[in-house]
């Protein structure tokens, strides 16, 4: 999937659409996606000047966006919206810097009628930088939660 296909599926837009493309996708099972981390990202102006590091919360957001693609490509959730409901066991192991290629590996753990649970791992050059279990609530696009 390219950027346009991604934006057709999830509601995130610039400057907070972090998925550049999807490498592999098995709907309802797993996804591998890519985020190219560049120095021109707006968050690097303040985090941290002279020592740019991608904020951990944005690594989790990037994982959540990849997970949303996986969830919304599942036939039962197509044309809906996935809202992040919980983050369990979040772990950060190394910093992500400009020039890094963030690979996002998401596996579906459980699906229910209106929710999904995934295992999410972000890597750089094959090294784990972040992992978490993410819980999503799935609702119609126009629903008020």
Task: Lay out the secondary structure.
Elements: H1 3-9, E1 21-26, E2 30-36, H2 56-72, E3 80-92, E4 101-112, E5 115-124, E6 127-140
Antiparallel strand pairs: 1-2, 2-4, 3-6, 4-5, 5-6
Helical residue percent band: 10-25%
CATH topology: Thiol Ester Dehydrase, Chain A
The quaternary organization reads as single chain
Radius of gyration, in Å, reads: 15 Å
Beta-strand share of residues: 35-45%
SSE run = HEEHEEEE
The helix-and-strand class reads alpha+beta
Global mean pLDDT: 93
The outline comes out as globular
Strand order of the largest sheet: 1-2-4-5-6-3
The CATH superfamily appears as: Hotdog Thioesterase
Number of helices: 2
Reading off the top of the CATH hierarchy, the class is best stated as Alpha Beta
Number of domains: 1
CATH architecture descriptor text: Roll
Give the terminus-to-terminus CA distance: 29 Å
Main sheet properties: 6 strands, antiparallel
Low-pLDDT stretches: none
InterPro entries: FabA_FabZ, FabZ, HotDog_dom_sf
Family: Belongs to the thioester dehydratase family. FabZ subfamily.
Keywords: Cytoplasm, Lipid A biosynthesis, Lipid biosynthesis, Lipid metabolism, Lyase
Pfam family, one: FabA
Report on the structure:
The chain has 145 residues and is an alpha+beta fold. The protein is built from two helices and six strands, in the order H-E-E-H-E-E-E-E. The protein has a single domain, classed as Thiol Ester Dehydrase, Chain A. A six-stranded antiparallel β-sheet has the order 1-2-4-5-6-3, covered by helices on one side. The protein starts with a helix and ends in a 5-residue tail after the last strand.
